[in-house]
Design brief:
Layout lengths: L2 H21 L3 E5 L6 E4 L6 H15 L2 H12 L12 H13 L5 H18 L19 E3 L6 H6 L4 H18 L8 E4 L5 E3 L8 H17 L4 H10 L26 H17 L2 H22 L28 E2 H15 L8
Antiparallel strand pairs: 1-2, 1-6, 3-4, 4-5
Helix pairs in contact: 1-2, 1-12, 2-3, 2-4, 2-12, 4-5, 7-8, 8-9, 8-10, 10-11, 10-12, 11-12
Length: 359
């Protein structure tokens, strides 16, 4: 592996230590691109699992018992979301516990993941709709199918309740695929109406940057945790040409297809890189090599162009140009905690710190 990946991973995980010192007992959400100062939340919102995941990546990287204790503490704080009415429990609990439960060997993370999986299956999954609905935890209509409620939820359900959990995981993904990919560009969100049918939601808008990335990640989750190569085949339709990737193929997606020129979303690119590496773990050898090569080019581009380097001014290791919410004008060129997580996870997968079966 080229030295750039190991050096970049060390830089990004050192940023985790700087962030931890700044935010104290609060969860980081997004940071100002000029100063590096974080906007935080008290409970983590839908992104809390990514902060716990970053802490586990740092602990695995350093091998320091203090980092491990910190990671375990932050994972434990996610328990307050166990009964929350939201499909983002998949993101919160899968990515917040998987590294601790896997490579970290943390029994508390294993226990929390089991409890979360059972809760999502027992009180979350709606058989009549075939999904875990988006839910009402963050306001708005409850019976919504949103693409960001799929990744994380698929492996979480797949590890709950044996065959029943696996059926729910497959149903949850397949229903979202049918809805979201039924139109071009991709429609990220649909609401179940009083008339008994699905209707497209205006937001997130068609062409939203993370829509495609989240679906790719969910397909990779399913290929691994449902042990079904058909989902690798489904991912090919979202990936485009099968040829060898080159540097000219590296594209950081626009925040939306209608976004102002130059406004991109690096967090979507980082999610896609992780999806490619996880898909590679489920693909045949020639295709796996192509997928890993494409992911490596994407990660190298992010590191070279969008990550801050040591020097005066803002902190180093920030993944800039992430777009949280273009529609509301929130953090449109910022460092995002999930962007940092997926960049670090991609680099950890590329360098062998963790494997695709760990997370």
């Amino acid at each position: 592996m080229k030295p750039w990946a190991r050096e970049a991973l060390a830089l990004v995980l050192e940023r985790v230590a700087v962030t931890a010192a700044e935010v104290g007992d609060r969860f980081p959400l997004y940071a100002d691109p000029d100063t590096g100062r974080w906007t935080t939340t008290s409970r983590g919102s839908w992104t809390g699992g990514f902060w716990a995941g970053l802490r586990w990546l740092r602990a695995l990287h350093t091998g320091d018992g203090r980092d491990r204790a910190g990671a375990a503490e932050w994972t434990g704080r996610l328990a307050g979301w166990l009964g929350a009415d939201t499909a983002t429990r998949g993101l919160i609990f899968w990515y917040g516990t998987a590294l601790g439960a896997g490579s970290g060997g943390d029994s508390a993370s294993v226990s929390l993941r089991v409890r979360a999986a059972g809760a999502c299956l027992d009180d979350g999954f709606a058989p009549e709709l075939g999904i875990v609905p988006w839910g009402a935890a963050f306001g708005g209509p409850r019976l919504v199918a949103r693409v960001d409620g799929v990744p994380g939820m698929v492996p979480l359900l797949a590890t709950a309740g044996g065959a029943e959990g696996r059926r729910a995981a497959r149903s949850h993904l397949d229903r979202h695929l049918a809805l979201c990919l039924g139109e071009e560009p991709l429609r990220p969100a649909w609401e179940w109406t009083a008339a008994g049918r699905w209707a497209a939601c205006p937001q997130p808008a068609p062409g939203w940057s993370r829509g495609r990335a989240w679906l790719l990640l969910a397909l990779a989750d399913a290929a691994l945790w449902l042990d079904d190569g058909a989902y690798v085949e489904r991912a090919r339709g979202l990936l485009g040409p099968d040829g060898e990737a080159t540097a000219t193929d590296v594209v950081v997606p626009p925040a939306e297809v209608t976004a102002p020129q130059g406004l991109v979303d690096t967090s979507a690119a980082a999610i896609e890189a992780v999806a490619l590496l996880k898909l590679a773990a489920a693909a045949t050898a020639p295709e796996a090599q192509r997928l890993r090569g494409r992911a490596a080019l994407l990660l190298e581009h992010l590191v070279t162009v969008h990550v801050t380097t040591p020097g005066p001014g803002r902190p180093s290791g920030m993944l800039l140009n992430g777009c949280y919410d273009l529609h509301r004008g929130i953090a449109v060129r910022h460092e995002l905690v999930w962007g940092d997580f997926f960049l670090a996870l991609g680099l950890a997968l590329l360098t062998g710190l963790v494997t695709a079966h760990d997370v």
